[in-house]
Write a structure and sequence with these properties.
6-stranded mixed β-sheet, alpha/beta, 187 residues, globular, Spore Coat Polysaccharide Biosynthesis Protein SpsA, Chain A, 16% strand
Length: 187
């Protein structure tokens, strides 16, 4: 079992209703009151985005129900990919792992418990980059052992977590992409 809950990074932009719903459901998680929440608010991409971005910022401004809440406002629009890369990198300077949530996810009340347990359980496995709280709808045959779990080759970005040890090894510039794309084993 984990010593303390991993921090939660929530990435928001301009969807106030989605952000509100996501926060409401996260607050209902059993470990919310023990979890640090970091909210990364991306800046407007176009002048027409200012009002929507402002509404989201008003929504997150007084968030409660967590151990601690830190809001990071971006002046410029980084875009989702760069926002997540930079935000997760910032958090992992201080913490060994992080749970990542985007502004349109509906979490179950057990989501944070599951993610913390999975992050701890797989923390020393060098072959695992991340854990996910998302499971696609699949047909489970009656003979399937329920104490087993399927490990997809592809990771999911709908409620996931990772560790500093693997994040530091990522080449975000993908300098070996041309070699990687033709190598079946690496893919």
């Amino acid at each position: 079992m984990y010593a303390m809950p991993y921090p939660v990074a929530l990435f928001v932009y301009r969807r106030q209703e989605h952000t509100h719903a996501t926060l409401t459901l996260l607050q209902k998680n059993a470990l919310a009151k023990e979890s640090n929440l970091f909210v990364f608010c991306d800046g407007p991409k176009h002048a027409s985005d200012h009002n929507a971005v402002s509404e989201v910022r008003k929504t997150v401004q007084n968030v409660s129900g967590f151990k601690n809440v830190e809001i990071i406002y971006r002046d410029n629009n980084l875009g989702l990919s760069q926002s997540i890369i930079s935000g997760v990198s910032e958090i992992l300077k201080t913490f060994n792992g992080v749970i990542i949530v985007e502004d349109d996810l509906n979490t179950d009340p057990g989501f944070l418990f599951y993610m913390n347990t999975a992050l701890d359980y797989y923390s020393a496995r060098p072959d695992i980059f991340s854990v996910s709280g998302f499971v696609p709808k699949i047909h489970i045959p009656p003979e399937f052992r329920h104490d087993s779990f399927l490990f997809p080759i592809r990771s999911h970005c709908w409620g996931w977590g990772t560790w500093r040890r693997v994040w530091q090894e990522v080449d975000w510039n993908m300098s070996d992409y041309n070699e990687f794309i033709i190598n079946k084993k690496k893919k």
